[in-house]
Amino acid sequence: MSAFRPDRRGNGGTGKIAPPTQRTIWRRRTMLIRIDEASGHAGAEIEIRGWLYHKRSSGSIHFLLVRDGSGVMQAVVAKQDVSPSIFTAAAELTQESSLIVRGVVRVDPRAPGGHELTVRDLQIVGLAKPYPITPKEHGVEFLMDHRHLWLRSRRQHALMRIRAEVIRAATEFLDRNGYLRMDAPILTPASVEGTTTLFETPYFDLGKAYLTQSGQLYNEAAASAFGRVYCLGPTFRAEKSKTRRHLTEFWMLEPEAAFMELDEYMEFAEAMVCAVVTQVLERRRADLQVLERDLARLEAVRAPFPRLSYDEALSRLLAAGKPLPWGEDLGGDEETVISAAFERPVFVHHYPARCKAFYMQPERDRPDVVLSADLLAPEGYGEIIGGGQRIHDLPLLEQRLQEHHLPERVYQWYLDLRRYGAVPHSGFGLGIERSVAWIAGIEHIREASMKRRTQMAERSMQTT
RNA sequence: UCCGCGGUAGCUCAAUGGUAGAGCGUCCGGCUGUUAACCGGAGGGUUGUAGGUUCGAAUCCUACCCGCGGAGCCA
After folding, report:
1. Angle at A243 between CA A237 and CA A247, to 5 degrees
2. Residue A411 near residue A211, CB atoms below 8 Å
3. Which of A141, A213, A273, A434 is most buried (CB neighbours < 10 A)?
4. Interatomic distance A146 CA / B20 C1' (Å)
5. What number is the ipTM of this complex?
6. DSSP assignment, residue A360?
7. Mean pLDDT of A178-188
8. What is the rounded distance in angstroms from the CA atom of residue A172 to the CA atom of residue A174?
9. Selection from A42, A30, A34, A63 nearest residue A114 by Cα
């Protein structure tokens, strides 16, 4: 089946593929390249290693769409140009078979992308069985069951590249601003906030450990050590959520800064979100276009974002005919009503204390509200940031622990942060998947995650 | 946990009480510039499961299983 002569490969005739040690490898006249580099090699003989994305054939010519993870390129196998064995091999190729092709890069307006490969040599590495994901449409359930294969599609490539860019842009922004990455533990001895249901796991013979729901408390310790810190990692909420914006396992980016108060926090979070959106627009524009994202909506994301107090939000809800009693938390519908009024993300600050976690700093002259601020993404995507200023006063924090019936013994180390050089400080959590879903303009958060975890995704848990 | 919708060929769907079908994928044949290629042919089914009504059930009834969407929780 192989049309390759192993002796030409310079690998001792083993037929094995030498692992690339650098991005570009020279081997005699043929250069191994990635498809996204192909336009710079017009006229040159090159080698591409990848998978068959799609094929169209007629009697004497095959058009192979080859993908290698960096892009998709058309490879043309003409009967007159290759040996009969190579032409037969091209005819046998099935969708998603892995292959190595060599040939000359040619500019041709008829080719998707403007250039193509005229094949001289072709090796089938692994002939694929009939591939379940065909070029026609499929339902979400079927695609989610085949998530491990769905990742090969163009749309998923675009999404995963945007996700990587969101994380890169955000962490680069934090690094530039003097924040130290200091990741918090995943296994924790108790609840961070005392409210959400946690996943538990046996911890040797010492009882139970819990999967973290937030790195925040640890971040506060780190912020008192280094001034400005952030953590990035998976977080877990054992809630039986069943909505387009919830996962039981998701990634969260959490900055925390000493001496930072509420207004400064909002300015900083705003700058970070703007930096992320700008960088995705710059570097992943083609991917956004694959997803048919309305770029004008993203280009409108500029500082300053509107800032709405909780009280003002209630007035707007009343005016919109959706009144909410004071003290109730904003639900998905309420968030949508508020964010729909603006083309930029909007902060809602000064929530009622009873809606928020025990550690939120109360407003000086009005203790029934706290110095919190959530950022709601536009277009109905909802909350992508939650955060605020933390309590730095020791007696007040002790009082709050009692009010929330939290075991003070477990929080002694947290109280220490108030005993030894307490300062006003603030921080927030940015939901990675929610941010990606908003920026990419996708319907459901699950596609922003490699393998979604939700309560109902049990079938996928049984296998992967 | 609650509310709503659904389960028919590998996939997407049709068939509303009377012989279970189409498109795509697969297999075979044809085609030298295809763009979700096209043309001809073939194969493919315990209609989610169990029971009931009926001369006759994919279709009506009951129970269960599974999935999807939404609420609550929050990033």
Report:
1. 30
2. no
3. A273
4. 28
5. 0.85
6. B
7. 94
8. 5
9. A42
**Does A87 score more than 60 pLDDT?**
yes
Please state whether strand B lies within 7 Å of residue A388 at its CB atom: no
For residue A65, is pLDDT > 70?
yes
Name which of A165-179, A279-293, A311-325, A450-464 the model is least confident about. Answer: A450-464
Judge whether residue A153 contacts strand B, using its CB and a 7 Å cut-off.
no
Which residue's entry shows tokens 């998978």? A51
CB contact at 8 A, A419 and A461: no
Fold classification of A143-463 (topology level): BirA Bifunctional Protein; domain 2 (3.30.930)
Contact A272, A305 (CB under 8 A): no
Enter the tokens of residue A436. Answer: 């990606």
Identify the helix (H) or strand (E) that includes residue A63.
strand A61-67
Measured between alpha carbons, how far is A310 from A6 in angstroms, rounded to an integer? 70
Q: Is the CB of A80 under 7 A from strand B?
A: yes
Q: Which residue is nearest to nucleotide B23 (CA to C1')?
A: A136
Query: Using an 8 Å Cβ cutoff, are A326 and A353 in contact?
Result: no
Question: Cβ distance A208 to A202 under 8 Å?
Answer: yes
* Region(s) of chain A under CATH 2.40.50.140: 6-126
Higher pLDDT, A425 or A458: A425
A86 CA to B15 C1' in angstroms comes to 47
Q: Which two tokens stand for residue A355?
A: 């809606």
Tokens representing residue A267 in the block: 């300015």
Which residues of chain A does CATH 3.30.930.10 include? 143-463
A219, containing H or E segment:
helix A216-226
Taking only the tens place, the pLDDT of each residue in A101-148 is 999 999 999 998 889 999 999 999 999 988 888 877 788 888 888 888
Q: What is the Cα–Cα distance from A102 to A9, expressed in whole angstroms? A: 12
CATH of domain A6-126: 2.40.50.140
Amino acid at A381: Y
Cβ distance A68 to A74 under 8 Å?
Answer: no
Cα-trace Rg, chain A: 27
Distance A261 CA to B33 C1' (A): 65
- The answer to whether A374 CB is within 7 Å of strand B is yes
Comparing C-alpha atoms, which of A158, A401, A179, A424 is closest to residue A293?
A: A158
Tokens 């006003």 sit on residue: A424
Give pLDDT, residue A322: 84
